[in-house]
Fold these 3 entries.
Entry 1:
Amino acid sequence: MPRLEEHCWSCSCETKHSSGANWLASKAEEMMSIITSVLRNAYGSLHDVRAANLIRRGLVLFTVGAFLALVLNLLQIQRHVTLFPEEVMTTLFSSAWWIPPCCGTGAAVVGLLYPCLDSHLGEPHKFKREWASVMRCIAVFVGINHASVKLDFDNNVQLSLTLAALSLGLWWTFDRSRSGFGLGITTAVLATVFTQLLVYNGVYQYTSPDFLYVRSWLPCIFFSGGVTVGNIGRQLAMVMSKPHLILSVK
């Protein structure tokens, strides 16, 4: 009889241990599913916030690029630096309709690439990160464009060297980053090649071309423009990543 009672007692203990282990396992599985669901929802919310911020930054950069392109292109047309067909001059603001959207798209791409490249290289740009500096950078960029059509030199080489020095001065004053310099050079090369293809196909032309259908100072303009748009993109990325803005989006 004692052996039978001991056997029954051990069986009941094992049953209790087994049921307790099963209960703990089910509770742990339930907690894991809850945690996974919470993390998935948090990641989805964060992804949505980042996507919304990216779209808003892109729209702001597109608007700024389109506006600057329209104003600066009109300046070059008035000074007879660029020549368009007569039927083009009767369109919006006496300028080619495709220039603002093309330049706006380019500004959005370049402005979004600058903070992404900073993050990828692990070198966050912290030099003069305030809107006052960005506005001064825009003013200097407009001044460089104004100088390209106002300054009168004996030849385009002297003008190109002067604008190159001004463009490097803009980068040194408002950027000083390797990523900014490299992306500015890339922007200048690609934009100049694209412009040369447009001129080669007769879309428009430059007066007194001296560098494969265009002016030799044109890469300087694109370089300084890339640095300027990059600073705008960096500032937008910093402002829109603040916690109170993310909470307001949610």
Entry 2:
Amino acid sequence: MIFHPVLRIATMLVGLFALASVNAEGARTRLKDIIDVEGVRENQLIGYGLVTGLNGTGDFLQNVPFTQQSLTAMLERLGTNIRDTRILIENTAAVMVTADLPPFARPGSRIDVQVSAIGDAEDLRGGVLLATPLKASDGEVYAVAQGPVAVAGFSAQGNAASIVQGVPTSGRIANGAIVEKQVDFEFSQLESLKLALKNPDFTTAKRIEQAIDGYFGQDISQAIDPATVQLFRPVGFEESLMDMVVGIEQLQVTTDQPARIVIDDRAGIIVMGADVRVSTVAIAQGNLTIRIAETPQVSQPDPFGGGETQVVPRTDVEVDAGDQNRLAVVPEAVTLQELVDGLNALGIGPRDMISILQAIKASGALQAEIEIQ
């Protein structure tokens, strides 16, 4: 049996959305997966440095003056004066170095860094990053990065053609930075904590409060707003705050979110939440499609006829006005599966379904928020 591509896509969507609807109903999630503890977070670091050892693919110093200035200053610090010297090397590139400093990172530990060219360098493959201080927003140096740059992309060029795959001007150094300073944060000395919801919601915040109070048997938490639940140390709790957080992380709650449809128009992707509902609505879908095919024919004269070879144009025009499409009624849906079944009954693909969902929303029949990426 042969399936039409549109029907195959529709069948896959029905199965996917049906599974999502079944799993979402009554699903419980660990508190650990839906909250962040205030103060326990990463800190972004940034620095400016030089990558050397490039095979003629670095910055052209006459076009990128800051690379030349940085190279001159670095060599002077190493005891070499080249200020009055004309530099024409192309094996050095100016780069920005970024990293995320994990919470509670101690001096001496290593973190990964990202390196990206900011001049006209063509490729960072084979380059080595020189010692680069990494600073946080407070201006303090928290790590120093250095090491060979690993680049996933590549570029190749000849006299008449060139090819570039990936991004050869950006790379990564695994464990390329050493932490020099830790962020001052005494977690054990806190008397209260604030739990930040990754997906803020009034109902979910209240359920978290109830789950924590039930676990300790006393009112020690309060949902301040949809994104924050404040937690106090229980009366008579003699264990550490670390033990307290470990205990509540494994609590399970049923999350709740507003009905939402996320659409990626470029890729033709539709993701629907389990609570999406639609009122009874009639839908007609059809497009005027015109296909023009050019198949020119070559007219060859007889061997001794004295004629000339000619190309005779031949054009085939096919018009599809969508006459087979009819007005369909999508009844008021109770579940996500019924909504998708009603839309797929029209025999349409994902891209046309995006337009239909937007039209249903405009008519007021769709009780869900549409987010277009």
Entry 3:
Amino acid sequence: MKVSQLITLFACCLLSAALALLAQQTFFAPAVSAPDSSSLSVAERNDVARRSFAKGLPADFTTSAKAVTPAVVFLRAYPSSVSRFEPGPRGSITGSGVIIDERGLIATNRHVIEDANRIRIVLGDKREYDATLIGEDESTDLALLKIKPEGKLPYLTFGDSDSLQVGEWVLAVGNPFSLNSTVTAGIVSGKGRSIDVLEPEDRIESFIQTDAAVNPGNSGGALVNTSGDLIGINTAILSSSGRHQGFAFAIPGNLAQRVLEDLRDFGEVRRAVLGAYIQGVNAAQAKSLGLKAARGVLITGLRDNSPALRGGLKVDDVITAINGTAINSASEFQEQLSRYRPGDRIRVNYVRNGRALSLKVLLRDKNNNPRKLVGREEVQD
């Protein structure tokens, strides 16, 4: 055999050996076992335990908690019935509020400040201000306040509450029992909940349900996701004792934002109406109506000359979506419709005799007027 052939053969053998060694280390290396705890010190064992516990946590809430708490305020409302000879906190109502604008706009619940002749706000840095009521909405239990601070304030921005999913982590921030800047965590337990807690006939209840601990004093506070986005205003608890029992409810952020913008710009909320009487769909109705599942809302009646009738909807039609957002219950229908104003056109998806159809409807107010609201600035001009 020639020398050149021997050299080539030797090189091939070396290459084959190197590839075999690499394959063994890559694919057949034994698993690295956990360190024997008996060989670790007490401090090292504690560190391993802490790291294992941290790995099991669903999320780190510290960043969002730090960002949110400065924008949640303590609120004390003095009802008109309180005697002028008792000017102290006796007889007052306490709650929470959320700063939603750096210039001092604060969102809270209407029931917290109802019939108050004075509203006192305490910021996270202990500064105190008297607040002015900009507007209130009984149908959603929301109110908008205004203070005049020195300089800009920390505030929260609304996130997309429609994107929330059941099982997602959320934080409730408020002042239960006057304990300032209290943060509790929980998950979204349900959406589109109606619990008949609001009194008006045109009430809009499509709450986010959560198991985060919410108690008296949390009303008007913030419900945020782990990114610190405002996705709800904490409003109610469902409890036989008046204390937290695992059921808390918040006004969805998308609905709250629309209502608060109206209060800011117009001083009132004039809602669009469709003029249709509706109810949820059960399994038996879904089968008889040719639906694939029990979803949407069934039209049981139409008002004369209503937007629904003008648009072409009929009794026994099943509305399944508004502007592409699916409707699965009467409360979800009310919530979606409440996001629009008189004069807006919406696309309604519906099922009639088993056929999926759609049409556009011009919304009107409760007086059947399609004209849009006029802002305060426009009136002044």
